[in-house]
Amino acid sequence: MRERIADAPGGEETEYNVYPPNLHSPYRERRFEVGEDLYRSIGIARENRPERLAQFARNFAFFDAPLALFCTVDRRMGPPQWADLGMFMQSAMLLLREEGLHSCAQECWAMYPKTIGAFLDLPDERMLFSGMAIGYEDTDAAINQWRAQRTRLDDFAEFIGI
Ligand SMILES: Cc1cc2nc3c(=O)[nH]c(=O)nc-3n(C[C@H](O)[C@H](O)[C@H](O)COP(=O)(O)O)c2cc1C
């Protein structure tokens, strides 16, 4: 991946949109804020593009985790089965917590579908959805001290009849 990133820093042609084109409000602002908070937690200023890119590239070393998953989906399946895959991944992540392990879902791997497809020898019908780094949290690392802000419940949920 180190070589691949140097050759193609912007990734390969993706097989699905990780975000919709022209991400709209309020998601655009939330995405921006979560990124700002993350880089702030490790003291990287917004204008420091090289350090931001270097931090992003740590994704492709699984943040030094010793174990990883690549999660794929049969490309003939539609949104309901993609939802199933998300549930499957979350179940795996919760089971990992039960065993004292931590994980980070990593959709960034979808930026390199050709490279990973060749590495895994994926059959044509399987599309790479996401990676997942698995290991033990480094509790001393500054990046692990912050938490993404949470939107107020009333802003995204409506309870009717109670
Ligand atoms: C499907 C999915 C893909 C993600 N992809 C990435 C990624 O590529 N790189 C990354 O650092 N975090 C990734 N994340 C992790 C989020 O950035 C965030 O750290 C994680 O969801 C925990 O924060 P939360 O408790 O606010 O959800 C992903 C999360 C999900 C659910």
Short description, anyone?
Residues 53-136 form the Nitroreductase domain. By secondary structure, this protein is of the alpha+beta class. The chain has helices at residues 2-7, 27-41, 49-57, 79-98, 113-120, 153-156, and strands at 67-74, 102-106, 126-135.
General description of the model:
Pfam families: Nitroreductase. GO terms for molecular function: oxidoreductase activity. Residues 53-136 form the Nitroreductase domain. It comes from Paraburkholderia diazotrophica. This is Nitroreductase family protein. This protein is α+β, with helices and mostly antiparallel strands and 162 residues long. It has one domain: 3-Layer(aba) Sandwich (NADH Oxidase), CATH 3.40.109.10. 38% of the residues lie in helices and 14% in strands. A three-stranded antiparallel sheet has the order 1-3-2, sandwiched between helices. The chain is globular and about 50 Å long. It starts with a helix and ends in a 6-residue tail after the last helix. 9% of the residues are buried. The mean pLDDT is 97. Flavin mononucleotide binds next to strand 2.
